[in-house]
Amino acid sequence: MEHDAHAGAPPHAAQDDGTVDDWAREDAEPMAVDPASHHPGEEAAADAAPAAADAPPAPPAEGVKEIQSSLQNLDLKANVAAHEEAPAVEEEQKQTKRHLNVVFIGHVDAGKSTAGGQILFLSGQVDDRTIQKYEKEAKDKSRESWYMAYIMDTNEEERLKGKTVEVGRAHFETEHTRFTILDAPGHKSYVPNMISGASQADIGVLVISARKGEFETGYERGGQTREHVLLAKTLGVAKLVVVINKMDEPTVKWSKERYDEIEGKMVPFLKSSGYNVKKDVQFLPISGLLGANMKTRMDKSICSWWDGPCLFEVLDRIEVPLRDPKGPVRMPIIDKYKDMGTVVMGKIESGTIKEGDSLLVMPNKSHVKVIGISLDESKVRRAGPAENVRVKLSGVEEEDIMAGFVLSSVANPVGAVTEFNAQLQILELLDNAIFTAGYKAVLHIHSVVEECEIVDLIEEIDMKKKKEADPKKKKPKRKPLFVKNGAVVVCRIQVNNLICIENFSDFPQLGRFTLRTEGKTVAVGKVVAVPPGGSATFSA
Prior knowledge:
The protein has helices at residues 2-7, 13-16, 22-28, 40-54, 60-95, 112-122, 128-140, 149-152, 156-161, 191-198, 214-219, 224-234, 256-272, 277-280, 311-317, 463-468; strands spanning 98-105, 168-173, 177-183, 203-209, 239-245, 281-285, 330-338, 342-347, 353-354, 358-362, 366-375, 378-380, 382-383, 388-394, 406-409, 416-426, 435-436, 440-445, 448-461, 482-483, 488-500, 512-517, 520-529. By secondary structure, the chain is an alpha+beta fold.
């Protein structure tokens, strides 16, 4: 891998590398040590010698021993310092690669965990012995084809049922990018877990099974393929790679007709979900179980008609909008635990977090200090936008933090509110339900899950007329009493507890949300107005 090649370079190599960006370089300078000009062992030994000479005379053998032992100690210290230096430099090298979160979504049994497991195996994150162990385990359960999924599905319940429940996490690298895989559950009972995974993702891999009957089940009404695509778009997954999996299946046999049929059905649906299919979506066939067309391009002897890129190439080339490393800090907390201090986990949506920073945990306004940052499994001194990090904090107890709280900068803290105005698109209300003031649902916004109530419908927006209308001839607002499926409406939403949100126009990641009731997504929306100047509610 790229950074391994540089690991042995002298520490000051990080400086010369033009690719290290400015804010990584500020960090590198205090660490640069020129081995030629500065050798801590020699210098300290030189100090030690006169000190020994000034000491009162002692038996000569003991004096020599003392000097030798002090020299050995100093050598050891120098070695330790050098060892500590190396990972820090390697970290700087690592920082030059961009980091992306990829969420695997799709209907239950489409092969998401198997594809994720295969990626880790192909990129060298899992060794052959582990794979053999999983193969044996799967065989013992009479589930031979599940062994790759065991890499992602680690707990016993998931392996027994063959269903992902929690969002699995793993890391791999391609030539230019470090990826975090988020393996989302496909089963409709676990959609809230899928939402928490997708809300951290930059790009989505929609896995579709080409097997006869399986694609149809996932795609029809009530299938998770549709719901996951809508949720992904709402949660800010701007780019989608649609992989048509299980192409090696006996009912498919790499058939171009089957591939074209699935693509033909998916394109109109993706367009209606808001994706620009030409720019933001890419289709490709794979076999997750065999690893075909994943790390290397397709062998013509397997599939003669495909001459496009493989999955790793597509992921490596995807362009995503850059976030602002100099903006105010915003990090929604997805989890917390105790480990010699309070550790919070989350994805930095904006700004840069450095060791020693003073930050605020909102909405309870706790002043905290950053005493450690971990990236993947390694310690770093700073982390920028789009990184998944664990941040160790002092000044707050673990029980005072909940998922959904936001770590933010003191100078420009995130707002904490109990009501806001939102533009909602009603997708599919439950039978006989009408959407009106008093409607109750569960609100999912970044890592917040809160019960909410619609307290006022402000105006219904007619999307067709909006395009045709002359802006000068503004009609008075139409205030509806209720709305039906498919309507777009601006309404006021109220929650019981303080939640941290932002206007969609300022911070899209903290301003888009979904409303769900009884296990179904009924509406998606964005925050259009929050109460002014630090107040939690709009003044009457």
